[in-house]
Design brief:
With 299 residues, the protein is mainly β. The protein folds into two domains: 64 residues; 218 residues, Fumarylacetoacetate hydrolase, domain 2 (Alpha-Beta Complex). Strands 1, 2, 3, 4, 5, 6, 7, 8, 11, 12, 14 and 17 form a twelve-stranded mixed beta sheet that branches. A five-stranded mixed beta sheet has the order 9-19-18-15-16, with no helix packed on it. A two-stranded antiparallel sheet has the order 10-13.
Length: 299
């Protein structure tokens, strides 16, 4: 099952995506302005799928929105692909991510505020040189939690996965180093494109799929999720140690190698650049990076 959120006729809708990805069926889901959040909660509690609330629509006739608006910060995993860990070890983050016995036992975890989330084809706003001159991309598979819980053992972790989506963990690298932590540099407005929809766990094996990322048509990132240092069950086990996970929580599972910071010289994003993130079995998101017009009002 694929669940999408979209705007049509000036109103938000939530519903199902057809098998060929060309049509959408709206559902009588509660609070569609939050995307599929309430629907995920309802289905995780064992409620039946709501009935259709209208006729099928062609995908081309609607504007896709982020499939889900999380209720709290996204959980994000850093340094989680072997090749990406190597490129980070040559960067300004070398002291934070350099391998050690303790770091090999536990994942690096940070977060992004929920207001960063935008749709799969929405523009991403460059904040301007006064804020950041080092905006970077990170194409990632994201987990959507279904059944909540705490102290979830690795052996049962996949049972708590509702499905998967794609995120671009956009990052302001100079803001990260300036503040010596990652929250602000990861949480600038529009810094988390998400979509195009949620694919449920019964239709996609997130532990063994392919992630690719392009910038202006140039393939930069290409990896399999089986190359993760901490696989998805290990991430859920670590995150739920003393923290209750809830239906609709999002886990960004880490970025493969090939980020802009990893090049010499670095390849930071500029006005007009287009980043495409694709996950096999899930689809793709594509976002243009744009400078904010002078005097433009905040969203």
């Amino acid at each position: 099952m694929r669940i999408a959120s979209w705007s049509w006729g000036g109103r938000p809708h939530v519903g199902l995506v057809s098998a060929d990805g060309r049509e959408l069926t709206p559902l009588a889901a509660p609070r569609p302005e939050r995307g599929a959040f309430e629907l995920v909660r309802s289905l995780a509690h064992g409620d039946p799928l709501p009935p259709a609330s209208g006729p099928r629509l062609p995908l081309a006739a609607v504007t896709l929105r982020a499939p889900l608006r999380p209720r709290r910060n996204l959980f994000c995993i850093g340094r989680n692909y072997h090749a990406h860990a190597e490129e980070l070890a040559q960067s300004v983050f070398r002291d934070v991510v350099a391998p050690s016995q303790e770091r090999e036992r536990w994942p690096i975890v940070f977060s992004k505020v929920p207001e960063t989330v935008v749709g799969p084809h929405d523009p991403v706003r460059l904040p301007g040189s006064a804020v950041s001159e080092q905006v970077d991309y990170e194409c990632e598979l994201a987990v959507v939690i279904g059944r909540g819980g705490s102290h979830i053992p690795r052996s049962r972790a996949i049972d708590h996965v509702f499905g998967y989506t794609i995120v671009n963990d956009v990052s302001a690298r100079d803001v990260q180093t300036r503040h010596q932590q990652w929250l602000l540099g990861k949480s600038l407005d529009t810094f988390c494109p998400m979509g195009p929809w949620i694919v449920t766990a019964d239709e996609l094996d997130g532990t063994d799929t392919r992630i690719r990322g392009w910038v202006n048509g140039e393939l930069r990132q290409d990896a399999k999720t089986r190359d993760m240092i901490f696989d998805i069950p290990a991430q859920i086990e670590a995150l739920s140690r003393g923290i209750t996970l809830y239906p609709g929580d999002i886990i960004a599972t880490g970025s493969p190698a090939g980020v802009g910071m990893g090049f010499s010289p670095p390849k930071w994003l500029r006005h007009g650049d287009v980043v495409r993130a694709e996950v096999d079995g899930l689809g793709a998101i594509e976002n243009r990076f744009e400078e904010r017009a002078a005097g433009a009002a905040a969203r």
